[in-house]
């Protein structure tokens, strides 16, 4: 196996002045890093690890062997690159913009009978579903993420026709509200129909692998795409997970999938990456991946984190059922934005937005606290 290099931020700061200017802003988020680990692995095993302060990174990268230099420079540039805002084409003409220089919240709307947390709650009553979507928007959701198929472990596949019946009418309602809409689907026919009905973003938990037509459709649509890591294939995205190092393997998987999308003609500024918490991962693997979130800025794209009410929270809280995982969900949301996540996919919008706003206030205060500057 060819040697591979990774640059992982390991010392985060609330502001650059707290590190006397010797910190870099990660992915254009409100997070700074002052030290980094340069990892090299071969045959699935890390063979070297060097800890380097931000000010010394250019010299450390220049000293790397030639076969690692290009990857190192690309990752270092990606870590410091400001993420462009999402520019969404509005049906009927015009454009709307979602800034990614501050955390944004996506509210989940499941039009399914069997989703793990709220399956069946909205499927049979479109008025209740519409009211819930409106409440999420009023609470501060920047995007409503609409799904018509459960992807929980063991969920049965949904016939394409049923999925279309579940989501297209709701897309039309959400568009009439003026919502920014992502559609959580693996099927190109559903992607095409929902984009035509007024949706703006494709959110595919299979990372456009489920159907070979998805890549071409996504590229031709020009819509932003959210690519999630999942170890499985076809109808079971949770199976087949084998990792040498879960963090670095997921990083490589997302890099490869990103490259496939670029090769298919999807523009780099249209790609959003999601590590895929809960999909085929043990509790220990989920926790390791979460603690390593800053590494994923080195891929050069906005980061989406979806861990709301997931099984790992129950496992850490006396097996609390899904509807009693609010505290853990908010804790992980704050942890994610501490690491520079750009988008949070959540069930509990009002509570998460409140947490984000308080977090933002703390960051604003840190940025304007000139007492931290040296004399």
CATH-assigned homologous superfamily of the largest domain: Dihydropteroate synthase-like
Helix fraction bin: 25-40%
Given as residue ranges, the uncertain stretches (5+ residues, pLDDT < 50) are none
Please give the order of strands in the largest beta sheet. Answer: 12-11-10-9-8-7-14-13
Write up this protein.
The chain has 375 residues and is α/β, with parallel strands linked by helices. The chain folds into 2 domains: 4-80, no CATH class; 86-363, Dihydropteroate synthase-like (TIM Barrel), CATH 3.20.20.20. The chain contains 11 helices and 14 strands. Strand 11, helix 7 (246-263) and strand 12 form a beta-alpha-beta unit. The model has no long low-confidence stretch (mean pLDDT 92).
Task: Present the secondary structure layout.
Layout: E1 4-13, E2 24-25, E3 32-42, E4 45-53, H1 57-62, H2 66-80, E5 86-89, E6 95-98, E7 104-110, H3 126-139, E8 143-147, H4 160-177, E9 181-184, H5 188-197, E10 201-204, H6 213-221, E11 225-228, H7 246-263, E12 271-274, H8 283-291, E13 304-305, H9 311-315, H10 326-338, E14 343-346, H11 349-367
Parallel strand pairs: 7-8, 7-14, 8-9, 9-10, 10-11, 11-12, 13-14
Antiparallel strand pairs: 1-3, 2-3, 3-4, 5-6
Helix pairs in contact: 3-4, 4-5, 5-6, 10-11
């Amino acid at each position: 196996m060819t040697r591979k290099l990774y640059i992982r931020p390991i010392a985060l700061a609330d502001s650059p002045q707290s590190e006397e200017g010797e910190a870099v802003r990660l992915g254009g988020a409100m997070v700074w890093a002052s030290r980094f680990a340069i990892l090299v692995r071969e045959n699935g095993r890390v063979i070297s690890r060097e800890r380097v302060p931000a000010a010394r990174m250019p010299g450390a990268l220049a000293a790397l062997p030639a076969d690692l230099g290009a990857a190192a420079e690309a990752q270092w540039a990606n870590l410091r690159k400001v993420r462009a805002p999402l520019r969404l084409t509005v049906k009927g003409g015009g454009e709307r913009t979602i800034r990614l220089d501050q955390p944004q919240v996506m509210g989940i709307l499941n039009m399914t009978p069997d989703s793990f947390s709220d399956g069946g709650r909205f499927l049979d009553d479109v008025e209740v579903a519409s009211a819930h979507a409106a409440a999420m928007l009023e609470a501060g959701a920047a995007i409503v993420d609409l799904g018509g198929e459960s992807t929980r472990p063991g969920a049965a596949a949904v016939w394409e026709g049923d999925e279309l019946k579940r989501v297209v009418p709701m897309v039309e309602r959400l568009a009439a509200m003026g919502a920014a809409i992502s559609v959580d689907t693996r099927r190109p026919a559903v992607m095409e129909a929902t984009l035509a009905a007024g949706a703006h973003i494709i959110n595919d938990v299979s990372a456009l692998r489920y159907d070979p037509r998805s890549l071409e459709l996504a590229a031709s649509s020009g819509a932003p795409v959210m690519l999630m890591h999942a170890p499985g294939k076809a109808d079971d995205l949770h199976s087949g997970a084998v990792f040498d190092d879960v963090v670095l393997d997921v990083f490589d998987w997302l890099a490869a999938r990103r490259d496939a999308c670029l090769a298919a003609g999807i523009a780099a500024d249209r790609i959003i990456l999601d590590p895929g918490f809960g999909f085929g991962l043990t509790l220990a693997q989920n926790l390791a991946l979460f603690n390593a979130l800053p590494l994923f800025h080195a891929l050069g794209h906005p980061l989406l984190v979806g861990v709301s009410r997931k099984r790992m929270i129950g496992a850490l809280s006396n097996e609390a059922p899904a509807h009693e995982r609010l505290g853990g969900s908010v804790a992980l949301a704050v942890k994610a934005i501490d690491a520079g996540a750009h988008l949070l996919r959540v069930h509990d919008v009002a509570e998460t937005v409140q947490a984000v706003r308080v977090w933002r206030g703390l960051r604003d205060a840190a940025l304007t606290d000139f007492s931290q500057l040296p004399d």
